[in-house]
């Protein structure tokens, strides 16, 4: 048995440069904004997901909700069974363009914003999610 030559390569399986397409994760389950919180919790549990992409009637991304956010809303004193995902998502963003670099995406985020951010195409459809950390 002979030893082969070792090559240096990055530890991370993801490239450090390029667009967010190169470093994003799959979008995960996509649901409609008029879905109730209870149904959304059932979907997220069945999918064994950490988040849901929330879409409008035209399949454009309007936000993202996490299991923790859904649970907090359900357990709050203001919860009613009429509450919909559209009532708790931050309509209009923040979203990241699929052509943005990772550095541009991090620079575009509001100060202190960490976590998952939807990556959208030119039509507003969710392509994936980017984990923002500073």
TrEMBL record:
InterPro entries: CBS_dom, CBS_dom_sf. It comes from the Bacteria. Residues 23-70 form the CBS domain. Pfam families: CBS. Coiled coil: none annotated. This is CBS domain-containing protein. It comes from Streptomyces werraensis.
